[in-house]
Design brief:
Chain lengths: 205, 205, 239, 221, 221
Amino acid sequence: MASFPLEVADLACRRGGRKVFERLSFTLGSGELLALVGRNGSGKTTLLRALALLVRPEAGSIHWQGKDVRAEPEAWRGRLAWLGHLEGLKGDLTVAENLLAAERLRGAPPAENRLDSALVAFDLPPLAARPVRTLSAGQRRRTALARVVLTQAPLWLLDEPLNALDAPAQSAFRTALKKHLAAGGLAIAATHADLGVPGRTLELA
Amino acid sequence: MASFPLEVADLACRRGGRKVFERLSFTLGSGELLALVGRNGSGKTTLLRALALLVRPEAGSIHWQGKDVRAEPEAWRGRLAWLGHLEGLKGDLTVAENLLAAERLRGAPPAENRLDSALVAFDLPPLAARPVRTLSAGQRRRTALARVVLTQAPLWLLDEPLNALDAPAQSAFRTALKKHLAAGGLAIAATHADLGVPGRTLELA
Amino acid sequence: MADLHFLANPARFRRFSQRVLPSLAFATVLMLAVGLYMALIQSPPDYQQGDTVRIMFVHVPSAWLAMAGYALLAGLGASLLIWRHPLAALMARASAPVGAGFCAVCLLTGALWGRPMWGAYWVWDARLTSMLLLFFLYLGHIALSRAYDEPERGDRAAAILALVGVINLPIIKFSVDWWNTLHQPASVARLGGPSIHPSILIPLLWMAATLFLLFVLLVLLRTDTEIDRRRLENAELQA
Amino acid sequence: MSGFAALVARDLRLVWRRPGDVAVVLAFFVVATTLFPLGIGPEANVLARIAAGVLWCAALFAALLSLDRLFAADFEDGTLDLLLLAPWPLELAALAKCCAHWIVTGLPLALLAPFLGVAFGLEPGVLLALAATLLVGTPALSLIGGLAAALTLGARKSGALLALLALPLCVPTLIFGSGAVEALATGGDFGAHLAVLAALALVALATTPWAIAAALRQAGE
Amino acid sequence: MSGFAALVARDLRLVWRRPGDVAVVLAFFVVATTLFPLGIGPEANVLARIAAGVLWCAALFAALLSLDRLFAADFEDGTLDLLLLAPWPLELAALAKCCAHWIVTGLPLALLAPFLGVAFGLEPGVLLALAATLLVGTPALSLIGGLAAALTLGARKSGALLALLALPLCVPTLIFGSGAVEALATGGDFGAHLAVLAALALVALATTPWAIAAALRQAGE
Ligand code: HEM
Ligand SMILES: Nc1ncnc2c1ncn2[C@@H]1O[C@H](COP(=O)(O)OP(=O)(O)OP(=O)(O)O)[C@@H](O)[C@H]1O
Ligand SMILES: Nc1ncnc2c1ncn2[C@@H]1O[C@H](COP(=O)(O)OP(=O)(O)OP(=O)(O)O)[C@@H](O)[C@H]1O
Ligand SMILES: [Mg+2]
Ligand SMILES: [Mg+2]
């Protein structure tokens, strides 16, 4: 029945007693990108966290291929790739170790060749053996993006992916995102800048 | 003799044994803005930290109005306003308290009316009584920018000031920066985006 | 719990408590007056302990209520975590300090009693020690529920703690009993358990009923205040 | 299961990158225990009498001291979100974290304790018993402490609050741990005490992972 | 000076936001002292014998537990950069942080200790002596612990190793603190012990601010 993989209906969230948004509905099809825009504090991060079930929505539903995702939260989480404001990297581990550890934590077998191509996509091979602690802000962000690519998850949830990236890194990100969409993936990205990839836009007020 | 307030000569820095830049020289006059651009990891943050004496440069000198700043580090620090990758805000204190505490830590007497105008400049009055812990990423960044404005220091050192800001907040920042420069202030800002304020550019390689 | 289901809605609880509180307060005061008369004046001094025996009329019911109070916290915690009753959180927040208070009264009256009876304010007797640990569990609950900016998070963390704590209470009690019987303690003078004379037993039970009412009264009052405060905070936030 | 092993491995590797952190905990253990002979004086009979209790208390504090960052580091750098988003039960992740903690603190503490016991004049048999009780009992400390660490995530002054929550729950372990050693020294039934201690550890193993997972979930909100 | 006062005030205000925090440290102190009788056994004469050592040890643990976040919080949220950039000596800032810490932990601990001493069966005179030694000695713990906290900030391995050195630095304070109380109980020279304790605190006051400032500077690099 459902023609869209992702259907969000009437979602409402509060933070600290304040209503952030309500009656939020949208659908997203294969190969589609949804850009979340809106003023600071309009609830972009909150929406992403609610989609990942990290924040419990007050009302509404999230369906994936017609099934409520809260029925099988673990299967749902397996379908997500997450990039938050915080990178989720361990400063004491090297770039490569961080990526491998993240993959293993998802229960996926480590794949050397996939790792290499993710590193190459973000120009990280020269940094692969450096502890993340010694990286610059943009280098860390690139590592986190490489982790997203490595995940091979159908739905990417990205919070301000372009933050701290230089121009070549931004275009590397665009290439990776386009590839993901072309392969039938979905992506939702909160952003203040132009993502540079065609997609729909959802404005939060 | 020195016609420029800030003169940097032959600066060289290493991080973790790696040379980041060397023989870096530039001068900056009253009312001038210097935008630091360059690829991720090119040393923009390192240069800002070296100027603030947070990182010890390997070679070179920094002069303020003809005097080596390392001779009187405390006076020098009194002339700086700092915005780093990390905002330096206390989640348990409210926005207003954070700003006041930061001012007091600089040894300056708290000034209510200046506080108000700094808050207004970044559209913060509705958030003034909220604990910073409950703010969104952009709201936090705006608070940190208000702190910079409040400092009334002649030299602003800003690391990616536009990060996480929405369009109105970006133009508020531009207004504040122009006002600072018009009053004879100096500013050095590391950035990947266009600052939107006329100024010189230093490209790090 | 069935009653709580009915009252789970704060507004309905509010109407209920408003109706019950005045008569409850009146009954408590009345019973307290009678109870104090019975305990302080009517009942005879103990042949061994003299007038200090009167401490018991407060001491023993406090101990009972302190233990019952923790069970209540666990029940409220379960109903918050499982059924998400908003009232359960407020009630737990309201009752933890009350339970801790009765626990403290038990400890203090016991210590004051111990000085004349055992020559020391405190001995490491099993019963005393397990009461002290119960007090610590209360303190942990109170501290945890207040350790967060978002009261809801504190409520839920404290609810988890209460559930784990109540599973552990029998274990703690058992281990402390065992601990003390292993190292023969300096032998402790104590009244024979069940063989209490009716002239003492009746005022004791009366006072227990009275303090129980007081417990309920305090919890209801404090829950009311919590509801008000939560509403006020929410109103401020919406503004 | 592979996620479980991966998490243990990652935590061990992180510790391996900073061996100093384990060293600090062990040093704390040594300093805390050696203080007693220094403070109380050299009377051998008093020292032997209190040795088991002191060593067990010190082990408990050492474990707690090292526990407060168990989840906090992951919380602050965003890795906790990744754990919450991993497609396998969070209960296993909780267990894995506690497991890794035990390997780097409980285990070395248990191996170190007999050497410190010598300073208190304990017999060789008693020293072995001490190590055995610590081996059996410290997993319970890691699990209970882990629960307290998860409950206090995001609360400030979490170190002291954590200890306040964990200590009363650790009392049974402490009593049976030090009690077992004393039982051996005074001719009591060592085996029975050790069995109770193991039972306590199993109860902790069976209950705390669920509570920890619940606490972590609400910390992520 | 005004920066110094402002920093103390800010830290006190942060604590004031969560008054529970101080209560938690005190509660921890109480729980910790209770654990020793549970580990060692309830015999009154043994307990009175070790009371001073136990209470001092517990005070050290309480101080350590509450100290570990002294600079770490400022480090992680970037406030440390602001302190490093403040136009007055960093040594004063270090002192201010330790000072605020002592006001909210050392001071209340010293005032609370006599009440706990009652549970160990100490005499009134000894109880007063206990409070006095804690009042004089806990500033040294705050300062030395502050140094350890600052050293562990700088991620380097040398930092962790130096922290290892800092722990034993607390031992003299503990020995003379508990020693003074016991001297009084056993008829020794209480005054002399107290004098040494005060001297130790003064030495800490005169040296640690510089060391802390140096450690903070290198953590900021
Ligand atoms: C701080 C010290 C003390 C504490 C914490 C304490 C605790 C308790 C507790 C928890 C109970 C309830 C037991 C139950 O019903 O299961 C109790 C009952 C009782 N206590 Fe205490 N107690 C203390 C001191 C004393 C002293 C000094 C005396 C008198 C010598 C005393 C006499 C009694 C009596 C007569 C009962 C009721 C007897 C019974 O129910 O078996 N207590 N106490
Ligand atoms: N933990 C919290 N407690 C209370 N309120 C919060 C919390 N986190 C966020 N908020 C509030 O919820 C609203 C939405 O925040 P959110 O982080 O989703 O905004 P955002 O759209 O991501 O903004 P930004 O562009 O600044 O990142 C904001 O008003 C914010 O102040
Ligand atoms: N603590 C450190 N130890 C070792 N190397 C470091 C450290 N911090 C930064 N570096 C290295 O120094 C170089 C310059 O880093 P810096 O942070 O100054 O870059 P940047 O220009 O600010 O980059 P970005 O645009 O990503 O913020 C980078 O190669 C980085 O990897
Ligand atoms: Mg956001
Ligand atoms: Mg940078």
